[in-house]
Amino acid sequence: MEDKFRYFSERIAQWTGTPWSFALAISLVLLWAVSGPVFGYSDTWQLVINTGTTIITFLMVFLIQNTQNRDAIAVQLKLDELLRVVKGARTGMINVDQLSNAELEQLRRDLEKIGREDGCDLASIEAKVTSHSRRRHEKSGASSEELRSERSVEVEIEKKVKKESESPGETP
């Protein structure tokens, strides 16, 4: 039964993600709306669309969740395999998805600290980009207007970095 449900949910998810299924849904809603005067906009007429959309939504939740669960597992397995085969990768990261929320938060903080120490924080990366951009413009002989424009972007980046450094722990 599980294989049949998997096959069915994959096919439905694929089909409902097509322009044709969207066009069909729009057509049904338009047909329902146009039929309003014929049925005198009665309670039964309204009940038809409400009931139909509720049932479809209810069933789609399970189909979409099944598809997302499978996709998430497949992606996690692929990442685990990459960690396993890449030389120097932290193989302790394999199965990280099995950690508790508290353990994941601690790991995130630890990795952010390592990133800052290795110069991989936002400020360091933006400084490297700015420096590279300046060198590129100097080599290309960019006009003073282009350099001023680029400098204004750099000033905005510096403001952003300063703001983020003043409020540590907040996420953008």
Automatic annotation (TrEMBL):
Carries keyword Nucleotide-binding? no
InterPro entries for the chain: Iron_permease_Fet4 (IPR007251)
A GO biological process held by the record: transmembrane transport
Which residues lie within the region annotated Disordered?
129-172
Spell out the Pfam families in the cross-references: Iron_permease
Keyword Membrane carried by entry: yes
Per UniProt, the keywords (alphabetical) are: Membrane, Transmembrane, Transmembrane helix
Q: Where are the transmembrane segments?
A: 12-33, 45-64
Superkingdom: Bacteria
Where along the chain is composition biased (Basic and acidic residues)? 145-166
Q: What is the protein's given name?
A: Low affinity Fe/Cu permease
State the organism of origin.
Answer: Pusillimonas noertemannii
